[in-house]
């Protein structure tokens, strides 16, 4: 596992990989072409890329780019370091995004970039401050009126059962067609892709934080077939349920 905070230089040589931890990449100088799960973005000064847990991502910079990188160790670390902010940080780290920093957040990033990041206290508290600031500063209610926090709670509560676009649209007070358009605009994903990803994120959490049998976890996240569940995890995370379980902290 890399250190919590580090300064990294990206060049022309492309990087294309995945890792079990989540990651935030903050632009300091230059331009970094970044792609996560098929969603492309340009990371420059005062912008950041969100790389969810175990999500495949690629990047390169034609003229060079300097970034501050925050590697999030685990969900347990979020609970220990962030307390009441942990759930908001989970929502932030659950899906790919490219975000704009506000002036206070940008100032914090610049201060950390100039600090001795090898100091474990600065690294730990700096990472926690950054995540808490981002979780507070980026509302889960999108400007188009969708409450992603409400939808997340509904998906989590009912993920063992079939979920349809109509169910989520009804919660948002929209027709299915209008909801689909607004949801795609808010998240870059279709509603059903989003539901599938959230089910698998919950499955990963249960595999790493509980002793439940794999078949029971599959059922809890809406898979009646353990083989279909294993195939879905392999597509999402690149590994089997047993391999994910072996990665628990």
From TrEMBL:
Key words of the record: DNA-binding, Transcription, Transcription regulation
The HTH araC/xylS-type domain, residue ranges: 149-247
Pfam families referenced in this protein's UniProt entry, alphabetically: HTH_18 (PF12833)
Cited InterPro entries: AraC_XylS_family_regulators (IPR050204), Homeodomain-like_sf (IPR009057), HTH_AraC (IPR018060), RmlC-like_jellyroll (IPR014710), RmlC_Cupin_sf (IPR011051), Tscrpt_reg_AraC-type_HTH (IPR020449)
GO MF: DNA-binding transcription factor activity; sequence-specific DNA binding
Biological function: Regulatory protein of the TOL plasmid xyl operons. XylS activates the xylXYZLTEGFJQKIH operon required for the degradation of toluene, m-xylene and p-xylene.
Protein name in UniProt: Helix-turn-helix domain-containing protein
Organism: Pseudomonas xionganensis
């Amino acid at each position: 596992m890399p250190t919590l905070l580090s300064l990294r230089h990206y060049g022309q040589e492309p990087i294309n990989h995945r890792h079990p931890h989540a990651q935030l990449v903050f632009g300091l100088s230059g331009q970094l072409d970044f792609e996560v799960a098929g969603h492309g973005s340009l990371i420059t000064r005062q912008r950041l890329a969100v790389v969810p847990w175990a999500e495949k991502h690629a990047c390169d910079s034609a003229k060079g780019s300097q970034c501050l990188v925050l590697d999030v160790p685990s969900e347990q670390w979020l609970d220990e370091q962030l307390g009441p902010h942990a759930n908001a940080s989970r929502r932030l780290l659950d899906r790919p995004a490219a975000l704009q920093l506000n002036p206070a957040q940008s100032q914090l990033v610049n201060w950390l970039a100039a600090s001795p990041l090898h100091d474990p206290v600065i690294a730990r508290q700096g990472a926690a401050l950054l995540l808490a600031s981002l979780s507070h500063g980026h509302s889960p209610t999108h400007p188009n009126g969708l409450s992603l926090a409400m939808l997340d709670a509904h998906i989590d509560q009912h993920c063992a059962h079939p979920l349809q676009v109509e169910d989520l649209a009804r919660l948002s007070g929209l027709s299915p067609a209008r909801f689909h358009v607004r949801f795609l605009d808010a998240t870059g994903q279709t509603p059903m892709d989003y539901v599938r990803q959230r089910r698998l994120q919950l499955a990963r959490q249960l595999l790493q934080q509980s002793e439940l049998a794999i078949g029971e976890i599959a059922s809890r996240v809406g898979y009646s077939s353990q083989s279909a569940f294993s195939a879905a995890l392999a597509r999402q995370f690149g590994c089997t349920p047993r391999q994910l379980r072996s990665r628990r902290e």
